Amino acid sequence: MTVASKTPEWLAWQNSLPAVLVDVQQIQGNVSEEEKQINANIFAYFCTGSGLTKFPPFNTKISRGFRVVGFSVWEDTEKGSAEGEAVFEIEVTKEMSNVYGTLHGGCAAVSYFSVAPPGSCRRAACRTTVAAMVLLGRAKGFDGTGVSITMNIHWHHAAPLYVSSF
């Protein structure tokens, strides 16, 4: 089966997800307000289940704390490539911390799988998350949902408790 024949099915499914309450005018980035809303809906489904899944996702409790900051897609016509970036923020709570009172690496890894908090990783690493791939897939016409193959996290500094942008 070709990608083109699968496109209407996945696209219709993504567009049919229930809308989450988000002020798309507050979301930064260069995609349309409609795409910002649809991508927020997709993120909510994969990270919280949106009440539609039989089994809530593993990281539901943490994911409910994320706030969408921005969605952007850039195209490099000279190289024939494109990149997507989904930026979120979350306040680090005690439940997310290690014995030093900073964000636990395991919690960070779960978070990076879905999103990339601002300032917490290099820009290239932020573009490898699921949210960014879904965003890019919608812009370029492919199903960006799937399985992560690799994950690289570059720590610049620890994220202390009660800080939302680290």
What's the short version?
By secondary structure, this protein is of the alpha+beta class.
Walk me through what this model shows:
This protein is of the alpha+beta class. The chain has one domain (22-140). The protein has six helices and two strands. It has helices at residues 3-16, 33-48, 60-63, 105-114, 123-126, 130-140; strands spanning 67-76, 81-89. A two-stranded antiparallel sheet has the order 1-2. A hairpin with a 4-residue loop joins strand 1 (67-76) and strand 2. The longest helix is centred in the first third of the chain and has 16 residues, at 33-48. The radius of gyration is 16 Å and the shape is globular.
Task: Name its key features.
166 residues; alpha+beta; two-stranded antiparallel ribbon; 2 strands; disordered N terminus
Topology as H/E string?
HHHEEHHH
Q: In order across it, which strands form the biggest sheet?
A: 1-2
Distance between the termini: 43 Å
The parts where pLDDT drops under 50 for at least 5 residues are 1-6, 116-128
Shape assignment? globular
Number of continuous helical runs:
6
How many strand elements? 2
Integer count of domains? 1
* Mean pLDDT across every amino acid position: 78
InterPro entries: HotDog_dom_sf
Itemize the secondary structure elements and their pairings.
Layout: H1 3-16, H2 33-48, H3 60-63, E1 67-76, E2 81-89, H4 105-114, H5 123-126, H6 130-140
Antiparallel strand pairs: 1-2
InterPro entries: HotDog_dom_sf
